[in-house]
Amino acid sequence: MVTTTASNPRAKRRDAAATRAAILRAAHLRFLRESYDSVGLRDIAGDAGVDVALISRYFGGKEGLFSEVLWPEDSPEFDPANHDGNLVEYLTQLVTEGDVDDRNHRMEMFVMMLRSASSPKAGKIIRQRVNEDVLQPMIAALGDDAGEWRANMLLAILMGVGVLRTVMESDGLTCMVEDREEYLRRYRQLFAGILNA
After folding, report:
1. Average pLDDT in the 6-29 region?
2. CATH homologous superfamily for 9-70?
3. What global pTM score does this model have?
């Protein structure tokens, strides 16, 4: 006897997870190649092999899908409050460490953000997520009257280094091992200078 999806809720959940993953993969590729405004939900649904209505069902529409593509649920959390008392070291590790998959993900995220930033809807999503996920946690971690401007300076450095490492593939960290400590020392000085200003 064959068990149908209707009588097997576990199979239904698996199908829902696979469908959701297929939509995310298709959207990721589309947003990587085209701007937010150029991408249509029907195109994504066609690429994923699903009914277009499922995008609204799983993501609430194009805006929710774009947000999820840029910031997947399983992406590592930016948590400057949890730095074991050494925010300088935490920030230095953020800009200097990470494996190839990590760097590729960040590169693709930057490309998608840059490609779609001029769109009013996508720009709003990007600003909101960066504010909620990066700036506000940083301001809270700094915890003083100068926290907002210092957080913005730190964000500019983090984003700039991120672009250098991922898009330009040029930040000095791929140099010979003996020079690496010098780069780390200079990043530490840079972050310490802003944090102690």
Report:
1. 78
2. Homeodomain-like (1.10.10.60)
3. 0.75
